[in-house]
Amino acid sequence: MDILRVSTTTDLAATAGAIAHGITVDGAAEIQVIGPRAVNQAVKAIARGYVAASGIDVYCIPSFATVHVGAEDTEEERTGIRFQICPRHDVRRQAEPPVLN
Amino acid sequence: MDILRVSTTTDLAATAGAIAHGITVDGAAEIQVIGPRAVNQAVKAIARGYVAASGIDVYCIPSFATVHVGAEDTEEERTGIRFQICPRHDVRRQAEPPVLN
Fold it and tell me: What does the alpha-carbon distance between residue A46 and residue A31 come to, in Å, rounded to a whole number?
């Protein structure tokens, strides 16, 4: 599963789309952010209105994460927030619509 | 169930404690915030390290909410974020510790 990185300038609809895609393909999605405004951006993308538009109800489990930022020689550790995002129903096992003859 | 209001200056440990209390008593807790920094504060309180310290694993469902702020004559509508916070296991049905004779 890829970890989505969301910043203050990340498009909400694109993030919601990436969440829906991750859930459909992998059964869950993960977002990692650093800083209050990026946390806010991630929460808004997760908030039901957006992702629910794809027919997927989600919940999330936020946790603290140590994130390495910068190039190798100037790398520094920052504390970020990681959101594990799961569907409230298994979207992968969703039955195919019945074939009408 | 009371709705907890969290601002940028709300103490994280106190919020985590209020979440744990709400979950233990009512089976769930609800936090309402306005503004990016208050969203960040709420997420940090929810993040596993804090609430898990009370032995409760939680998940949350963020959604947009219309919030009325100010006194009656100067009241205005703001869009906030509401977090519904639920335990990942039913803490109310937890068995009493065995009595040792």
Answer: 10
B89 touches chain A (CB under 8 A): no
For A56-94, the pLDDT digits (tens) are 889 999 999 998 888 888 889 999 999 999 988 766 545
List the single best residue of B9, B30, B44, B59 to mutate versus A (max A Cβ within 10 A). Answer: B59
Q: Does A37 touch chain B (CB under 8 A)?
A: yes
Give the predicted TM-score (pTM) of the model. 0.82
Q: Considering only CB atoms, which chain A residues are within 8 Å of B35?
A: 40
Identify the residue among A37, A39, A50, A83 best suited for mutation to test binding to B, counting B beta carbons within 10 A and taking the highest.
A39
Give, rounded to a whole angstrom, the gap between the first and last alpha carbons of chain A. 39
Angle, helix A12-26 to helix A36-46, in steps of 10 degrees: 60
Contact A7, A39 (CB under 8 A): no
If you search the block for the tokens 């989505």, which residue do you land on?
A4
Tens-digit pLDDT profile for residues B18-45? 898 888 889 899 999 999 999 999 999 9
Token output for A51: 């992702």
Main-chain dihedrals φ then ψ at residue A31, nearest 5 degrees: -120, 140
- Among residues A59, A39, A68, A49, the alpha carbon closest in space to that of B44 is found at A39
- Whole-number Å distance between alpha carbons of B79 and A27: 30
